[in-house]
Structure formats: C-alpha cells, structure tokens
Amino acid sequence: MFDRDLALREAMNLFWERGYEGTSFDDLIAAMGISSSSFYNSFGSKEALYCEATQSYLEWSGHWFFAILNDPSIDAKTAFARLFAATAEEFTRGDHPLGCMISLAGTHCPPGMKNIREMMAEHRAFSEGAMAERMRKGIQDGDLSEDTDCDMLAAYYSAVARGLAVQARDGASHEKLAEIGRLAMRAWPARQGAEKVIA
Asked: For residue 195, what pLDDT is reported?
C-alpha cells in the first residue's frame, strides 16, 4: 500500500543529499518506490514535490531550532550557544544527509529556476529574521545592550550556521563544528556596564 508520508520523506532525503538539479525524476520514483503515474497523481510535478519536501524539512528542523531559540527559561546568549551546539549535532548525526537542506540549496540555478532560488532565499532570510527577533527580545530582557545591531549580529550568526553546513558536507567532525560554534560565540557583545565574557 502506498505510504505518501514515507515517499515524501524519501524524496526529502534525496533532495537534501543531491539538490534539486542533481535529483532526476527516475531517481525520485526509484527512491519513493512508486510509478510515474502515481508520482504525478500524488505530487503533481518535481517542483511541487520539492516545495513540499522543503516544507517537510522545515517542520522537522524547526522543532529543535525554535525550541532552543525561543526557550523562555534561558537568556539570549545561552540560547545561541545551545543553538550552535545543536547545529553541530544535527548536521553530523549520520542518520540523514549531512549539513542542512536549506543552507546550500538554490544558490546556483539557471534562469528557469528563479522561483526555486527565491524560495530558498526566503527560507534562509526567515531563519535569520528569527535570530534577530530573539536578540531584540534579549535587549528587552536586559541580556544585550540597547545599542546592539541585532540585524547585523543575526546576519553574522546566520552566515556561521551556513558555513557549518558546508563544513559538514565536506566531512568535518561534530567536534570541529562544535568548536567553530564556540568561537563564534566570542563575538557576542558584552552588556553595558559589564566586562566582556568569553564563551
């Protein structure tokens, strides 16, 4: 019996591992264990499937990302330190493709795939915006100085996270990624009137 959720998960992993262009239609139906007619009846097109697989990935990764980022029991700096620790863990787990499906997707696309490139850029911008919002809450809570440039600091940490995805794809260890995250936390600004603490 056709299990749509299982087929979608197989497609997600294939897109995650090979990218949109690197995944052929034949690759998809073989991995999903379905016929071409079942594919079109269930998912419509490769692009539609990719959009759905991306949403499935975002729901999965969002569980740990937002749970840590928005944990009300910890301050902003602790949230980001834990976020980098979790990123190192998730990007190198070994029971799914390495790195991040979103970080590297759609950065090199032909003109006909402009919509894919824009969709992935929007997803990356969303996570960066969520980081900035957490920092602004940190200012409200007294965790960060009022003069902190939250948008730029979030852009920096977002860039580090994307770099971790590249490192993971290139075979970097969990320990290496975790250390990069700890080094990145040294850029966390000191609060007004307090000495800078090195993480």
From this structure: 47
Q: CA quadruple 123, 125, 126, 130: dihedral positive or negative?
A: positive
**For domain 54-187, which CATH number applies: 1.10.357.10, 3.10.310.30, 3.90.230.10, 1.20.1530.20?**
1.10.357.10
Closest by CA to 124, choosing from 58, 188, 56, is: 58
User: 61 and 99 in contact (C-beta within 8 Å)?
Assistant: no
Q: What is the mean pLDDT of the chain?
A: 92
Task: Give the integer Cα–Cα distance in Å for 90 and 54.
Answer: 17
Q: How many CB atoms lie within 10 A of CB 177?
A: 24
- From CA 3, how far away is CA 188, in angstroms rounded? 46
Distance (Å, rounded) from C-alpha 89 to C-alpha 33? 30
Q: What is the reported pLDDT for 198? A: 42
Three-state secondary structure call for residue 195: coil
Query: Where along the chain do its domains lie?
Result: 54-187
**Interior/surface letters 106-122, b for 16+ CB within 10 angstroms, e for the rest:** beebeeeeeebbebbee
